[in-house]
Amino acid sequence: MAGAPWGPLLTALLAARVAAEAGPEQAALPEERSWVLPMTASNWTLVMEGEWMLKFYAPWCPSCQQTDSEWETFAKNGEVLQISVGKVDVIQEPGLSGRFFVTTLPAFFHAKDGIFRRYRGPGVYEDLQNYILEKKWQSVEPLTGWKSPASLTMSGMAGLFSISGKIWHLHNYFTVTLGIPAWCSYIFFVMATLIFGLFMGLVLVVISECFYIPLPRRLSEHAEQTQRPEDAHKAEQLQDAEEEKEDSNEEENKDSLVDDDEEKEDLGDEEEAEEDEEEDSSAPPVGEGRNDTQGQGPLREVQQLGELEPEEQVPVWPSSIHAEVAQDTLRQRKNQHADKGP
User: Fold this and answer.
1) Predicted local distance difference test score (pLDDT) of residue 296
2) Is pLDDT of 298 > 70?
3) Which residues, other chains included, contact 283 with Cβ-Cβ below 8 Å and sequence gap of 6+?
4) What pLDDT digit, counting tens, does each position of 261-274 carry?
5) How far apart are CA 171 and CA 2, in angstroms?
6) From the candidates 58, 64, 308, 323, which is the catalytic residue?
7) How many CB atoms lie within 10 A of CB 299?
8) What ranges does the record list as Acidic residues composition bias (predicted)?
């Protein structure tokens, strides 16, 4: 009966000892290992060798969280599939998201010996496993040329995304941590951009002044002297061309005037010929069988000259007086044709 009060005390001491011994053992248990390798800007070049599958995600993305367990299962079987599995947090690594030009989340990429392809299937383990075992990636067009993440263009894109990520983190630091209004943060970045632009412009001017070699004064004077005769020669050529145009225009005007004068003369000749025909038609008819030898002489001369048209006929007069009249008319016509000649 005397030892009864010690029973509860011994039981409490024993329970405390057991709890103390069990606590450190449970705390010492290691957490479950993740088979997915986190990729950063410093180790992303590992995907240039061997076969890899990469997942781009964000902690706040619900679709990314739904595929986490499937992606972990796929990574556990990576040794069987002979493939490495990695993931990229676009919030912590904006440069890598720019290098791969990630615009949607989650985004999956397949890499085989430095050749990258975009996987657009669901992030389910079975589909990922079949994609590797059946080598469906061979039917997908690779990202080559400037689109390749290892190209110089995408390296520049990675730098821009890294700068934008740093600016975003700095903006959050101003607005969240320090409690500065957002408009004050925007004004700060605008002023910083202007100052940086002015500074870079000054640097470019200094660099150009350092590498620019001015020409000696003699060479510059010689260049001016050689340039002046060339300018004068060009001016003379232009003046000569203008004078030639003016001369050609004057000749064309003269030719047109001469043509007009000739047309007027031709019209006058036609009018005179019509008058002569009217005079011939008004003369008395010639008798049949009575042709004076004196009247036939001038007629033959006119026909030999070829100045009369076939329709025109010189009247033959029976007497010598009439022959003299015919000779006078013949002379008048000769004079008229002589005037027309020049």
Assistant:
1) 47
2) no
3) 315
4) 667 666 666 667 66
5) 75
6) 64
7) 17
8) 239-281
Are the C-beta atoms of 36 and 86 separated by less than 8 Å? yes
210 catalytically annotated? no
Question: What is the rounded radius of gyration, in angstroms, for the C-alpha atoms of the chain?
Answer: 58
Sheet holding 37-38, edge to edge: 37-38, 84-89, 51-57, 107-112, 115-119
For residue 226, the SS3 value is: helix
Mean pLDDT of 217-242: 72
Residues in CB range of 71: below 8 A, 6 or more apart: 36, 55, 85, 87, 123
How far is Cα 116 from Cα 109, in angstroms, rounded to an integer? Answer: 7
Residue 244 confidence (pLDDT):
80
pLDDT digits (tens, 9 = 90+) for 80-122: 989 999 999 999 999 999 999 998 999 999 999 999 999 998 8
Could you tell me the pTM of the whole model?
0.51
Cβ-based neighbours of 61, under 8 Å, separated by 6 or more: 105, 106
Q: How far apart are CA 317 and CA 152, in angstroms?
A: 116
Mean pLDDT across the stretch 151-161?
89
> DSSP string of 78-89?
HHHHT-EEEEEE
Q: Which 3 state secondary structure label does DSSP give 114?
A: coil
Q: Give just the sign of the alpha carbon dihedral 149, 155, 159, 164.
A: negative
Cα 83 to Cα 20: distance, rounded to the nearest angstrom: 44
Q: Is the pLDDT of residue 65 over 70?
A: yes
Q: How confident is the model at residue 53 (pLDDT cuts 50, 70, 90)?
A: very high
Q: Distance between CA 307 and CA 301 in Å, rounded?
A: 10
